[in-house]
Amino acid sequence: MTSPATAQTAPIAFIDLAAQRARIGSRIDEAVLRVLASCRFINGPEVTAFEEKLAAFAGAKYAVSCSSGTDALALLLMAWGVKPGEAVFCPAFTFCATAEVVPYLGATPVFVDVKEDTFNMDPESLELAIQVAIAQGLEPRVVIPVDLFGQPADYDAILPIAEKYGLKVLCDTAQGFGGTWNNKRTGSIGDATATSFFPAKPLGAYGDGGAILTDDAELVAVLKSLREHGQGVDKYQNVRIGMTARLDTVQAAVLLEKLAIFEEEIAARERIALRYNALLRDVATVPVVDPRASSVWAQYTIRLAPGVRDGLADKLKAEGIPTAVYYRLPMHLQPAYRHYPAAGAILPVCEALAEEVISLPIHAYLDEATQDRIVDAVKRALAA
């Protein structure tokens, strides 16, 4: 039997995939065994079934599965013919994948600041970034809003700006799939959406995976060609330069089982996040969700005074409580990207957040006792 003292120091999982597996592991095992028995490891029937159910869940006409969220972004830019001399606008406070696909095609990422409350793309900064791009002789082509930490970006403001300048809107919902904006699921907003099924995502595979969602049938045809080496009538006719970016059948089988319980898990994440907010709002700046949005809470991220975060992380680690920092260095300051343009010489909100945010454990199976242990440790550490 575990003693109370041991329970208070036993390591906590940051994202507990084992707890989910304990719930549906037998169903996933059976689904994977069916694929193994069929030997249809590429483009098996589970892939088509998953695409159909994913599109229905998101409220989109079509879903095109692929090998990762990064490839989903790249495939869309390829399908739209993005090229050198064109600007693609990305928030600077995001994972590198959002921007790294842009130079693949010789285009220029232009970095945009984020909002103080939601940490998502700031529409006013987007307007400034577009003017910077034009002044540098770049043609504005695509904007990539990111649904950061699970919450959709401010599409009411971003979509009109995109229409004004003729921009394609590529929604990066790698962290936000399952969230809503004005009661519309992510995946049914903008020209197309890219998402990720990396295992730590709210809807995660047992390996890499991704998908594109759109209502554009012509775009779907191009995407399906691109993900199969640019094939035409068959794989030995190549009508465009493509890549190999398929979602394998085993991952589709896993995702079908996870999608079946996804709504319940979203509700659990919401309950846990709101409880965190109630318990921590007196010691930290807790997350804010826009009233027009719902979040899937991919991360639970608080904001602290400058200089406090790293000490808190060390104290929590000593008690077996993991933390993470998303992101210590904004994209416009990363060594590989700092030569690209941005909306200003500094992006003040991104740069402040990089010094002040820290994320606590969250997943759909975080029980109240474990959550209380985390909260108590945070409060003691911040009071010391």
UniProtKB/TrEMBL annotation:
GO terms for molecular function: pyridoxal phosphate binding; transaminase activity. The keyword Transferase applies. Pfam families: DegT_DnrJ_EryC1 (PF01041). The active site is at K201 (proton acceptor). GO terms for biological process: polysaccharide biosynthetic process. Keywords: Aminotransferase, Pyridoxal phosphate, Transferase. The modification N6-(pyridoxal phosphate)lysine is found at K201. SUPFAM superfamilies: PLP-dependent transferases. The keyword Transferase applies. Belongs to the DegT/DnrJ/EryC1 family. This is DegT/DnrJ/EryC1/StrS family aminotransferase. It comes from Xanthobacter dioxanivorans.
